[in-house]
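Journal club prep, shared notes

We agreed each person brings one worked example of a sequence with its structure written out as tokens. Mine is Beta-glucosidase. I'm keeping it raw so we can talk through how to read the token line rather than staring at a rendered picture. Sequence first:
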Amino acid sequence: MTATVTPTTSAQPALAAITFPDGFIWGAATASYQIEGAAREDGRGPSIWDTFSRTPGRVHQGHTGDVACDHYHRYVDDVALMADLGLASYRFSVAWPRIQPDGTGPVNVKGLDFYDRLTDELLGKGIDPVVTLYHWDLPQTLEDLGGWANRLTAEAFAEYAQIVHARLGDRVKTWTTLNEPWCSAYLGYGSGVHAPGKQDPAAVFAAIHHLLLGHGLAAQALRSAGAQSISITLNPNVALPVDPANPADREAVRIIDGLSNRMFLDPLFKGQYPADMIEHISRFTDLSYIADGDLATISAPLDVLGINFYQPSYVSAKPGAPASLDQPGSEGIAWHASDGPVTDMNWRIEPSALTRLLTRINDDYPGVPLMITENGAAYPDGPSADGEVHDARRVDYLDGHLRACHDALAAGVDLRGYFVWSLMDNFEWAEGYRKRFGVVHVDYATQKRTLKDSAKWYREVIRRNGIAAPDSDEG
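Then the structure, token by token:
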């Protein structure tokens, strides 16, 4: 039986109103493959997720992103919803296969036209577009050549970044290169639960390097083209020991923290891979893919670091335990389930871990502003008899995590904004359409959008630039 762990701290009932700093950015986030649909329209090429979702057994009930939320055709109405919520910013990703169907070569102008229209629609409603260039939908042609395990992909990514910036750079201020390279590398090439579905530890570490190199080359290209603000979004793991007094448990944390966090943060901000991790992964790869100058390219200064957070993890030493496929070299380490509240993804709810994460990054990698680029919870709530979606658990989750952000600000963290995940229910990768993260409900059969109670609550948070006390009559 899997051991359970009671969180060291838990969300307590909120008793006080809180206010965020003037200029704090309130936004929502989505990703191209998860919402756009129109998978074969206007010259879009196939992505690894088109291939993966059509591979039997990979995605829940064979769901695909072919239609998703049909945002490609409904973006005007969706932007109107954003304006109704009062969003200051909208974080969306560009589908690389819409721009270059084969990942290199000729540009598909119709693909650029869509993002041009979307950008203008956002600006017309007073919403700042925040572009993510890569949210996992790699052109299949590049994967056929080795994907992120091949240096070619990093070089092609920089060319693609230039193409998108040339079209949108006069209106888009903030450019995020990659979303969660941990997932692209470890889940795509390690456990294989995400596209492209490989299980090859050596490819994991080659992919990490080429993802980071792709970031660095794209950032270099964007900077030279005049981009105002350049970012990358990571999903750091708050790994905690089951028994902080046990040296073996602390050693387990060191390994997981190294694989999940320092393998990305150290190259980005220190210009080097952590020495203990180089030793750790040497059993899988000879690191011959790291060329002179790569780390200098990777570590060029950033304007903001995006942080995606959902849950912490608790680990302990367990001699004889097999390695997790998505953490190569994690033999002898056990992950522990929560005996506290969890979301529909079975992810533990512990807002204080977000405060801990933000203060750790602020202290260990100082000098770069932080942004919560994703935070949210999946719950299955649908329309009730009154036609409304009453998702009180999501409201509680968001309330607790916004208070955790406020605690981090009070501790001196330079946190600039918060993007809820997600604007609307969508294709949730290998989970298909059965997990709902949106603050806006989507009826996939009719494409009807319904503001959930959480959306109305978030609208009030944005209006107030904070959270009212629970017993307040305001609003």
